[in-house]
User: What shape does this take?
Amino acid sequence: MNLKDKLFKKPWPYWVGGIILALLNILLLFTTGSAWKISTSFLYIGSAILDRIGINTNDWYYFNVYTNQLKPEDTYLNNRLIVMAVAIILGSLLSVLFVSEFKFKKIKNKKQLVVALIGGILMGYGSRLSFGCNVGAYFSAIPSFSVHGWVFGAFMFVGAWVGSKILFKYIL
Assistant: This one.
């Protein structure tokens, strides 16, 4: 087995992945002064699309009360959060292409498609209601010794367990 297969095709132990993610989070915090955020970039993309079709989102309650966290020279499509989200997506694509693991999977049935779309919409809506997602909760709250990150983590595991039981019993 060559080095490429050992490093990229075989799964790494969880502790190695955890250490690498922790080091990357420290590097991100050190270089940008901000914690890792993902779902906010999708909010900005949605706002940019709405702005392009003539709906002004700057006057919305959310952006007036909670601000949009952009620097004055930034736009919804030109800011560090968008760059980070695009880099994560492209990095993931390049990594699966590098080890020849990219493939399209056929959707089994319409029920699976509908459930996946509804689940994605609910997850996105829920992440905006809570002002973040699991990435923000783990890589921002827990390292900052915030109690809400640990509460989120406990309930996320419970929700994943219940969701997987429902998924296997009724959908798959």
